[in-house]
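stuck on this one:
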Amino acid sequence: MADISRGNRPLSPHLQIYRPQMGSVTSILTRITGNGLIVAGVLIVWWLLAAAKGPDYFAVADGVLRSWFGKLILLGSVWAVWYHFLAGIRHLYYDSGRGFAIRTSERLGWAVIVGSLLLTLLTIIIL
């Protein structure tokens, strides 16, 4: 094997140098929120099954969903639903062949993030 001296160069892209782009941030957020929706879906299905099982079992499941942890999961799932909705609209816009300029793509990414947070706040206020 050849002896290649690489020196003290960092691996590319190095975390101290690399600046995350809006496309990568929104892609990572899509995966995180999708997995969060799975957790929320499992909790809601468990709550419904507990309601069918009986009052004692339902009291346990209802206690979990009404705890700070359950409320945090449900709040996060509301944000995730709005995020996925807006990201889906953005994706449909991309499918039309528009919005691929770097500046437009960054603005659309920020619109999805800020819009989902504002719609989540509006949902909390209304409900």
Notes: The CA atoms of residues 2 and 8 lie 18 Å apart. The two ends are 66 Å apart (CA to CA). The chain has four helices and no strands. The chain has a mean pLDDT of 90.
